[in-house]
Amino acid sequence: MNTFSLDDFDNLPPPPRYLYKYLSAERVGSVLEGGTVRFTPLMNTNDTFEVRSTFEKLAGPKFIAMLSEQMDTTLSEANVRKMIAEELKKYGLGFLPPDVAIRLVEQQTGQNLLATLRAEMQSAVDTMLVPMLNDPKYIEGLLERLGRELLCFSLSERMDVAPMWAHYADNNSGFVVAFDTEHEWFQRRKDGQKTRLQKVTYFDSKVEEPLADIQAALISKTTAWEYEREWRLYVKEDQVDRTVGDPADPIHLLDFPPDAVDRVILGPKTREETAQRIRNALAARYPNARLVRAVPNRANHTYDEVSE
Predict the structure, then answer these.
(1) Does 65 fall in a domain?
(2) How many Å apart are CA 169 and CA 163, to the nearest integer?
(3) Which pLDDT tens digit goes with each residue over 273-292?
(4) Among 30, 93, 243, 253, which residue's beta carbon has the most beta carbons within 10 A?
(5) Which residues, at least 6 apart from 99, have a Cβ–Cβ distance to it below 8 Å?
(6) C-alpha distance from residue 172 to each of 266, 268, 307 (Å)
(7) Which helix (H) or strand (E) holds 179?
(8) Is residue 140 assigned to a domain?
(9) Residue 180 forms beta bridges with which residues?
(10) Do 32 and 99 lie in a common domain?
(11) Which domain of life is it from (predicted)?
């Protein structure tokens, strides 16, 4: 897991200009007044099957083909000569040319050294590595580890999804924060150019192996959740700004820049005291953010944004 990073994966198409975070009224303090958002371990999200096996094999044909290419590179004549030269130096035989050592070995064994090394490595892959990677217990352990160590911040493509207002925003009495995805906070830290946001794929079946569709294998939910239209920002635990709460069930927080907020959307039933706290927070921390209200449009079963 130390080398695993979802930032390394391409994610097409790019995200929409704005993504939305649905929040309950009680989150005004931590989010708008405190300027933090919560990143949740995948194992602790509200989807029981968040961490599930979405692939038939961990090491399928594409993975095995990739290993074969790596073996060919590792066991090229130039690399083998270099490795032999290094080994000869360790034993005080650095004066002996690698080609001479190779000929001596081949004379003793009667076999081509490169072919023998390649066959032995292939045998280890076929009889040990691939079976281990495809063992159901190994896959389950890997997924559980991924679920514990990877934290996510979830957003939606839409601000007008009725079930989202009902489930995540206090039955229409909460609020929604509209984030600008072009802000540098959402860009990859490595090059500052590509988005760090990952789009969730929805499907109920399995792919043959992760390399067949890395997004579907590792960034997916069942189709029952498709209405969420979810995008995610992922971090590891050591990348959060602070952790609070019960050590047995910690809350991981990350600060977000005020200018990443484009607007805040009040719910149709947001109470006046909540709305006033939001107005005060915007005036104090988000001078460029607008305040609007979501108003149900009963003609098309969606919500319109109306200026406050």
Answers:
(1) yes
(2) 9
(3) 999 999 999 999 998 999 99
(4) 253
(5) 81
(6) 8, 6, 17
(7) strand 175-180
(8) no
(9) 18
(10) no
(11) Bacteria
Tokens found for residue 218: 């590792």
Picking from 105, 38, 4, the residue whose alpha carbon sits closest to that of residue 251 is 38
Q: Model confidence over 81-115: pLDDT tens digits?
A: 899 999 889 888 889 898 988 898 889 889 998 89
Give the pair of three-digit tokens for residue 7.
């930032």
At residue 229, what is the residue type?
Answer: R
pTM, to two decimals? 0.79
State the DSSP code for 55: B
- Same domain flag for 199 and 74: no
Domain that holds residue 101: 61-133
The span from the CA of 175 to the CA of 270, in Å, is: 7
Of the residues 133, 168, 186, the one at which a domain ends: 133
Helix (H, G, I), strand (E, B) or coil at 252: strand
Q: Kindly state the tokens that stand for 260.
A: 């990443």
Q: Are residues 168 and 274 in the same domain?
A: yes
Q: How many domains, in total, are found in the chain? A: 2
Q: Which amino acid is at 79?
A: N
Pair of tokens at residue 55: 């692939």
Residue whose token pair is 């290094």? 86
Q: What span, in angstroms and rounded, lies between the C-alpha atoms of 59 and 84?
A: 31
Judgement on whether residues 118 and 207 belong to the same structural domain of the protein: no
